[in-house]
Amino acid sequence: MAVGNEILEKPDKLTDDEFSKMKNHAGYTYLILSEINDFEEIRDWAAFHHEKLNGKGYPFGKNRS
Predict the structure, then answer these.
(1) Whole-model pTM?
(2) Which of 12, 44, 51, 60 has the most beta carbons within 10 angstroms of its beta carbon?
């Protein structure tokens, strides 16, 4: 979501800038789904799928607490 095909289809390793753009998809998902009533649980599952218990995930750096 909101990531260009040149990044999605790149056969080689992503640059730091490209990876940063790739990570934005979870934040965009959060923003878009926040506009839909009664989608809070779906929004959170979709947007937080790259979060880690130690807080080192993205897009929000959420941790176990």
Answers:
(1) 0.72
(2) 51
